[in-house]
Structures are given as structure tokens and as C-alpha cells.
Amino acid sequence: MESASSIKKRHTAQQVEELYDKMIARASAISKRERDYSRCMIKNGLGRILE
Fold first, then answer.
1. In whole angstroms, what is the distance from residue 20 CA to residue 13 CA?
2. Structural domain count, the chain
3. Which pLDDT does position 36 carry in this prediction?
4. What residues make up the domain containing 37?
């Protein structure tokens, strides 16, 4: 992964801020998918146990 200092050298402060926002959005989308997947797995598991 590229270091923060090398990113800052190549990009303006505004671009760094936008890149940071994109990284946060991507991480939060991934964690939402993981939560949805976990929720689905738990529901399926409980459904099988209760059958």
C-alpha cells in the first residue's frame, strides 16, 4: 500500500481528502456486505436448528 506522504506529494489536499472519503465508503460497503452475509448465515442456521 502506498504511504500517506507519497500520496500527498502527488495529490492536492482536496484530492487526498476525496481519496480518503472513497476508501472509507469502500470499507463501509464491504463491512455492510459482511454484516448482511452474517445475518443471512445466522438466520439460515437458526432455521435449520428450529426445524
1. 10
2. 1
3. 84
4. 4-50
